[in-house]
UniProtKB/TrEMBL annotation:
<dbReference type="InterPro" id="IPR009078">
    <property type="entry name" value="Ferritin-like_SF"/>
</dbReference>
<dbReference type="InterPro" id="IPR052703">
    <property type="entry name" value="Aromatic_CoA_ox/epox"/>
</dbReference>
<dbReference type="InterPro" id="IPR011881">
    <property type="entry name" value="PaaA"/>
</dbReference>
<dbReference type="InterPro" id="IPR007814">
    <property type="entry name" value="PaaA_PaaC"/>
</dbReference>
<dbReference type="InterPro" id="IPR012347">
    <property type="entry name" value="Ferritin-like"/>
</dbReference>
<dbReference type="Pfam" id="PF05138">
    <property type="entry name" value="PaaA_PaaC"/>
</dbReference>
<dbReference type="GO" id="GO:0097266">
    <property type="term" value="F:phenylacetyl-CoA 1,2-epoxidase activity"/>
</dbReference>
<protein>
    <submittedName>
        <fullName>1,2-phenylacetyl-CoA epoxidase subunit A</fullName>
        <ecNumber>1.14.13.149</ecNumber>
    </submittedName>
</protein>
<keyword id="KW-0560">Oxidoreductase</keyword>
Amino acid sequence: MYTQSFNVPDSPGAKTVALAPSSEDPALQAAFDARIDADGRIEPQDWMPEAYRKTLVRQISQHAHSEIVGMLPEGNWISRAPSLKRKAILIAKVQDEGGHGLYLYSAAETLGTSRDQMLEGLHSGRAKYSSIFNYPTLTWADVGVIGWLVDGAAIMNQVPLCRCSYGPYARAMVRVCKEESFHQRQGYEALLVMMTGTAEQKAMVQDAVNRWWWKCLAMFGPPDADSPNSAQGMRWGIKRVSNDELRQKFVDATVPQAKVLGVTLPDPDLKWNEERGHHDYGQIDWNEFWETVNGNGPCNKERLATRVKAHNEGQWVRDAALAHAAKKQARSIKEAA
Ligand SMILES: [Fe+2]
Ligand SMILES: [Fe+2]
């Protein structure tokens, strides 16, 4: 719906293709607004305001990059996992993240951007990805804590995206969230086992929690008062729940889990507030957050270099796949003739 047909004069027989027009048109804008107000879905062939399209391309591609770069901090533990079982679980999880990246790149492509453009943005350092992946994974406990807290925070962020107004993004998120749930549980379970172990193992878990806790709170983004774009995202049905609300939900859900696990969350101000019916928590270091977002975190350069190297080393695979596809196509044309 809301598409126009354009003639393509250069093509033989002036083939007609359907394209969503990009021109400003009050009637198209009104139809778009009505669809959003009715909580309907916008699909790739539908007309959409340019700003909506741009916002989604940025958000979905950043999300895809985060999945792909997110494979790196844990990927370097695959060869050092403490047992065959843990190795198999970790390989499956890291592979899932790669799959999430691919669904999301595909969803972004439906908005008129290309995979090459998006990858160029990532590899040149122009595009952002979640800054949580710019911190090192120092011990095996980090792998458990990433599953429990980082994937746990990701779930909080991503479940509302299953109701995002842009159809391909919303649909991709359904499967992503199911897999994230497995990631969270495997991490928590790995930590539960470590917490029944030696004093050294318990200390390792506590140390990892201390290092990751605040960074996970920052994953939800700046406070609502400092997020000027959030209101527009909410209006468009892209963002459903505010940063602060999501952060609060995460804190409230995590405190009892920490208790069961037997670890302390490193925040002296963390306490139940009877009146609010929520936990109060301390101040997040936003300077550190912005430093990392802007490329100065402990692992930004290392992550980007690893990613670019992997991409370059995979060139022969892409070349071979294209050559194979071309050969196959040539063969089927010959057979048809
Ligand atoms: Fe993921
Ligand atoms: Fe995950």
